[in-house]
Amino acid sequence: MRPAAPSDEQARTRRIVPVERRVDLRLLVPVLVAWPCIAFGALLAPVTGVWCGSAVATLVAAMLVGRRTRPRPGPRRRLVALTLAVIALLLVSAAGHRTVRSTGPLEELASEGAVVTIRGTVLAEPRAVAERGARPGGEASAPARFVVRVDVAEVLGRGTTTAVSAPVLVIGGVEWGSLAWHDDIRAVVRLGPSEPGDDVVAVAKPKGSPQVTGRPGPVLDAAADVRARFRAATAALPADARGLVPALVIGDTSRTPVDLTQAMLDTGMSHLSAVSGSNVTLVLAAAMGGCGLLGVRRRFRPAVALAVLVGFVTLAHPEPSVVRAAVMGCVGLLALSTSRRQAGVPALSGAVTVLLVWDPWLARSYGFALSSVATLGLLLFAQPWGRAIGRRLPPRMARLGPVLAVPVAAQAVCTPIVVPLQGSVSLIAVVANLLAAPLVAPTTIVGVAVALLSVAGVGAAGWVAWGAALPALGIARVARVCADAPFGSVDWDGSAAGAALLAVATALLIALGPWLWHRSRLRPMLAVAVVLVISAFAVPTAPLVWPPTGWVLVACDVGQGDGLVVRTGPDRGIVVDAGPDPGLIDGCLDRLGVAAVDVVVLTHFHADHVDGLPGVLEGRRVGELLVSPVADPPGESAQTARTADDAHIPVHSLHAGQSIAVGPVMAEVWWPARRIDAGSVPNNGSVVLTLHVSGITVLLAGDIEREAAAEVVRRARADPVRWGTIDVLKVAHHGSSNRDDRLLDEVDGRLAVISVGEDNDYGHPAPSTLHALAQRGFEVHRTDIEGDVAFVVTAAGIVVRGRDATLAGTTPAAP
Which of 375, 398, 409, 531 has its CA 20 to 30 A from that of 126? Predict the structure, then answer.
């Protein structure tokens, strides 16, 4: 008897189920292969090499597809051909972008440190990178420094005006913070070279205030007016809500408290403190829900979604980060759609390819990587993990499975990328995101309503803003509590090798997870033993936690003396003073991984600053020795000269008014201008420098006493533009009481480090100096207490870590 033919419904089910469960990775694999080729190859290699590489990739792809040995290329050959085609496309795009940017004299002028006049357009809202007088739990009283991206259209340098098209990063003072997005400006700046692979051609330090020559059009003006009204409507909210609500809705993070930003970074919640793909998804989902309630026909809903998306992006400003969030939000909406979920991975792969063609430098952006990988985790793992979790929950709670799976999937795939940013693996991020997730939607949706209502009236919108404030305060509370939780994170090597190791471990855990779970149920004691062994390996050790990722300056613990290291590259640095003991400075440089020293600066010739010079030279390449022109004491001066001569290192003197550029570091010399015979001649002959590195400025005051300090103050006040804004102070003469407090008043930032020996015979640092620093609100770090002291520049500001405190399990943090 023949079996009954399947019904039409059964046939459709059999056809649909496999398609729903199958993940199409055909376009994802080429993107994953091409991405690192662009990030670590095309953007660093010469343009000619990039063009040649794209030509070869195109030729090989065509040969693979065009060979006639088979009627049709096999799937593996098609995948290889598609991969090469994507690589060629992105290489051509990168080469084209780089060719346009390198046209003109801008790069050459930057390499020479030239002062030029630029005319261009502001590409992004000014962003505060350091704050003056930041208070824990509150906002900064006045931002001291702003970073502004400018698309330069014309440059006037060396007497010639040239039309260009290249982005420049301007690091300016408060006057640059008032610029609006898409303002046309004209400014006089000093150019400096950018890092290889950076998304800007040069870094600029302004020589004055910018001149606004044009404003955005009426549409952007209207958006700016709505943003201003929205800020006014949320101005009366508590500090945390006043910062978070505008951040979630319009991407304005200027009012977010510094410690809250750090707490959200520590707990893996930083994506909630700015416009991201999840915010866009929520807004679009709310719009689609509103269409359903209002009875809008399905064929009109895509047009409504597009209009909402364009309006949201315009309100938040169509900067690259917002455009990226909009694209990822659309892909995320696909992931939430039951009928189109199988199209999610190809859509994500296509979106990433298009965005990298539009802006190849996104390949080197942590934000873009996190957004893309988080969306991929949602597409690949949220549904199957949600079903697996749901099966293990009570029947009434089974629907919570997908909700619980979303933060787990996002954290699993994003952790290897986050590690280089914070140097640790968060153990509480999943819990924090799970607790905060239900609060994000009401904050965002009500916040958008407040922005729209503020057009009609700021007063009424201010009352509605409390509806967004309450869940925002909940998000902030979750971040702060979880950040303070014990054992909330495990320190991890933040290098590329450490991130790769974590990525491999994560992939193995995902692949073997079901099998491990099954085996642990059969042999629980074996599972406990494995967990104990892994925990033992996870105990932090010195190589894992020191140096901290992203360090820019380290005050080495060299005893009673000075020895500072400024980072100029992955294994390179500038050494300012060498301390009294060669072994101590050599050990500090080894811990920091410094294999080559571009420049050694010896501020003066006292033994506690120069006797350690042989330790700097031990096994390292040293480019140049810069010294004080006051050759006193003569014995130490002569010995230093002999040491440099034996090592064949050129020696030059520094004088006030000189400028130095070493890689990404720029320095201004403020002293000595002459010999001072009052007080200690060597101390008052110390070289005084301001160092500009990674967007911050550090004042290195040597061992100057009150006479030389008064001269430095006079020069700083006579040339405030060149002096700029000081973020970090290396306190003069180990905290001696022989000082001029007016120099402290010239420091805007409230971070200070004292290089001093434990239990020294000089009584350093003097109680009066510590009192003067405390009166002015300085946060003081000392090498005799904390060991090596590192300054790390993060998105939240400057973080200070002491090596001894780190190894003991605590990390003091600065604003």
Answer: 375
